[in-house]
Amino acid sequence: MPGRILIIDPVEINRIALNVKLSRACYDVQLAASLRDGVRMLRAALPDLLLISLRTAPTDRPAPAAPSAKGAKRSRSDPTDTALRLCRELRRWPVSADLPVIVLTDPDPPDLRLRALEAGATDVMAEPGDALLLARLRSLVRLRHMEEELTLRGDGPDLFAMAEPVTPFTPAAPVHSRATPAGLASPGLPPQTSTPPPFTPPERPRLPARRASDSFDTPPVTEPALQGRVALVGATPAQALIWQQALRPHLPWPLTAMTREQALTLADPARAPDLLVIAPQPEQGSALPLLAELRSRCELRFSKLLVTLPAEQTDTAAMALDLGAAEVLADAIDPRELALRLRAQFARKHRDDRSRARLRDGLRAAYTDSLTGLYNRRYALEHLDALRAGSGGMRRGFAVLLLDLDRFKQINDRHGHPTGDRVLCVVADLLRANLRTGDVAARIGGDEFLVLLSETSDGAARSAAERLCARIAAAPVLIAPPAAARPGPILHQTISVGVLPIPAGSGAVPDAASLIAAADQALYRAKRAGRNRVAAATQLPRVVRPRTPRVTSGPRQP
Question: What is the pLDDT of residues 171-191, one digit of tens each?
Fold first, then answer.
């Protein structure tokens, strides 16, 4: 299934029409005839996308009337207000903070679009065509699945409460799973004369109430570390400057007006804009060629691209969404609405960046020893297997060095484990400083290290091992007792090394366990010979091939 979509629409004919369109596209569609039913279904299972329809039946749509002073104030029980309150509450919950929400309306007054976007709606669409609606759904469901994949891959430390505290971008924490918000209370919509109860249950902490001044006209203060960079690529330099001047009162971020050529020559990923707003280019007659070019740039692969198009170009808008545009906007969009959409896109990008950073940290932790910063046993064995696989075509061989700290247990017993940890870190630093870029050093045990030298000869491997012995023996290690007023005495740590060279053209190479076992035997010879020395393996271990069972024919049948 492309995705699961929950539709909340109190008008039956609209609900049936949406169900037919989306089911025809093979979406898993769930229908709710009221907000109460919709909240109950949200409690049961979160969808990939929530679609709230505020449209009336086609035959019941009244002609637009001039607003009156008496009717300017809406009742709190108005269905529109209740739907917008649901959007706000969904944004407060960690489990639904980034759930895409599309609000469908009749041809709407601008204030409804602004109110819905400020309440947390992902998009507000007034009578979109089938092609544009389906393209928007595809775009949001695709992004939802990508974000979930990033989050699930990068939330390992969070699952075990080992993650470092992260400064939140918004009051709602990022989604870590599609678990059910079990505490989400049904609004229990009462009669129109009463006030609906809040959606958040009392046992969950609520955010402070919004002040009257907290609106799109007075943007909240953004932390300096979370400042966004916005590039405005207008059809002409003058249009980009107009955008820049119109957005400046509503966004505290740097706004850069640039040309098509400047956008295509952005070369530094660290300085790439977080958001790009693109207008149709005169020489191309469309924004799609520039969108495709920017989307293919490696430097902009994490940037959010927003395209402006004339409202009547619905087919082009659908193609832009399928090409990777984060949003398609009307070319005459209100600057306040554009600012709200840019804020929402930057919040999404920040969540994605944070998930990618956690994913990178998780991958690094999976292959790194937490104390010394060297690689761990898992990475070392995988690298050794890669050396074994490529040794047949190498012009020079490789070598396996197994290092063990001499009398390390006595250091822990006499000076304590903090001093033992300091010794391990000093040894790790010296290994890093005295090996080539392509060599690998790993801590594979308590005080045992494995060094893999690629593209090296027998003599060079032994010389490298002797150099490591000498450098480590000469390095002082400070012994500082707890709460010492002045530095304590120093000690000198020595190591013993077992060397196993694998010459080039040696044919089949034994498995990693056999190579390490042979280096370990050489290491123990160095220990028995007096420590602080190097011993080389006398011969390469023999490759043991599995025996093929002999097939014998059975007794001949008469």
Answer: 333 333 344 333 334 333 333
